[in-house]
Write a structure and sequence with these properties.
This protein is an alpha/beta fold.
Length: about 110
Amino acid sequence: MSVCCKALCDSGIDYRGSNTGVFYAQLLNSAEGLEDDRHEINSYHGVGRPIAIRPNRISFTFDLRGQSIALDTACSSSATAMHLAVSAISLGDIDQALIVGMYVFSCGLCAKS
């Protein structure tokens, strides 16, 4: 959440109430964490723990009114999030996008011109 805040503030865009989409790429999430606190379940677990709620939390916190999407396409999640965001902007669905990528693999040796 703090990285999203920094990115939005650094962008210089008046983002509150804007038609900004949130594209949340994720990878390798499971229910393992539920075992650690299974005896401390309260009314917030149903809406606070699922991965699908994370982009919605970002949208709500920063008053972003565009699409709010969580996706998991294994190793290509960040690239897919970027593709979907660019497509949504091109189609006019949103004006700008906040793309949250959990894992980004980059290699200077892999890119050759």
